[in-house]
Every structure is written in C-alpha cells, then in structure tokens.
Specification:
Elements (H helix, E strand, L loop, with lengths): L4 H15 L7 E6 L5 H15 L5 E3 L2 H9 L7 H5 L1 H4 L2 H7 L8 H18 L2 E4 L3 H5 L5 E7 L2 H12 L3 H23 L10 E4 L5 H14 L4
Parallel strand pairs: 1-3, 1-4, 2-3, 4-5
Helix pairs in contact: 1-7, 2-11, 3-7, 9-10
Length: 226
C-alpha cells in the first residue's frame, strides 16, 4: 500500500512528531543491488504485516524525493527528472539546469531529504525502500535493515526482462546504478555500503519474493514489533 506523503507528513505524522519526537516505533529499510525485486518484495511485506498488525504499516519509495523537491519549490512536472538523479548521480547539476530560480546546492537537498527520512522512520510503522534509508537511519533504534542481493547474471536477466532491455543494456544499467547508489550512501551517511550494519543479507536469486517477505516478517516477530 503506497502512501500519500503530503497527507501523511502534514497530518497525523506531524502531530505525532510534535507530541513526542523521541518515540521509538519499529521501521524497516530495504536496500538492494540493482536488478533485485525490492518494490515487489516490499509490497508483499506490507500486505503481510497488515494482516497481522493492529497498527497499519506503509510503503515509502519515491515519495520521499517527490515531497522533498516540492519543499524546494521545483515544478511537479520536473520531479520525474529528479527521480533519475539516482542514475546520474548529481542532483546539483540537474537542478541547476532548471535555472537559478530553482537552484539549491546538493547539500541543501541532502539535508532536506535526510531530515524527512529520519522523521518518517522515527514515526515508525513504515518500510523505506532505497534512497540510502539504511545510511540515514542506521543510528536510530528499532529499525530492521535489509540488503537484497543476487548474482550478477541473475540480476542482469531479471532487469532485462522487467525493463525490456538487451543483456548489454541491462549490464550497463546495473553497473551505473549500483555505482551511484554506493555514492548515495557516502553522500548521505558518510559510509560505504560495506560499513552499514545490515541485519540480514537476502539472496533474491534463491529466495522467492514471498519467501523474502516472510523472512523479514518473522524478524519483526522475533524482535517483538508485531
């Protein structure tokens, strides 16, 4: 179940944060190698959790970026271009191309996004997919941090099928995207991926999406979060 971040952030979440900025509700971050089924797994996970939890969980993916760029007064039709910044790796260059009216440094953008991610994680009951969520929230309590991995050949074939790419195109996209995601962790968390304390590394080539969702769900049970 995707989330309307404008409603969530401006409404009940903002009220909760004002009441108690130190609350320690559970949350999950999912990081992935390019070509793994992070979105599909996250959807299954949220549906599974909500079948057993009194408190409803939400899935948050690209909405973080959308709300952040809105706060920076960038036109809505340009948001898609900013989504692609993860591939190109330089938010600063892209926004600058929009003109000085919209320009803010990439440090300002990172600060805004980091604050938003931390606020949402502190509110709890969310599955944060990508966006260096594990790097930003690694110091917060009650988080479960998952890393999805798979052999390169499997990821190449999987991505080629999902995006209708050739094998060569898929390989190139994986190399570029993984490199830029590594840079996101450095930019946002001042750590390399290898330095992040993930709670579990799960192989998407040997475990089905449903099995991975079940493993993460059981981790929530073991930790007493459900």
């Amino acid at each position: 179940m995707a989330i309307d971040l404008n409603q969530y952030f401006d409404g009940q979440f903002q009220e909760k944060m004002l009441q108690n900025r130190q609350q320690k509700n559970p949350f999950i971050t999912i990081s992935r190698q390019t070509g793994c089924n992070s979105y599909e797994i996250s959807k299954e996970l949220v549906n599974l959790i909500n079948q057993h939890s009194k408190t409803k969980w939400k899935l948050i993916n690209k909405e973080i970026i959308e709300l952040s760029v809105k706060e920076l007064n960038i036109d809505h039709h340009k948001i898609k271009t900013l989504f692609e910044a993860e591939k190109r790796g330089h938010l600063d260059e892209i926004i600058r191309a929009f003109g000085s009216k919209y320009y803010k440094s990439d440090n300002s953008i990172r600060k805004s996004i980091k604050a938003l991610i931390k606020n949402i994680a502190t509110g709890g009951y969310v599955v944060l997919v990508g966006r260096a969520g594990a790097a930003v929230t690694n110091d917060l309590p009650n988080g479960i941090h998952i890393r999805l991995e798979a052999p390169l050949q499997w990821r190449t074939n999987n991505l080629a099928k999902k995006k209708n790419l050739s094998i060569a195109e898929s390989l190139a996209l994986i190399a570029e995207t993984d490199k830029n995601r590594e840079q996101l962790f450095i930019d946002f968390g001042k750590k390399r991926l290898a330095e992040i304390d993930f709670d579990a590394h799960l192989n998407n080539s040997t475990l089905t999406d449903g099995e991975i969702a079940s493993v993460i769900f059981h981790l929530l049970e073991i930790r007493g979060f459900i």
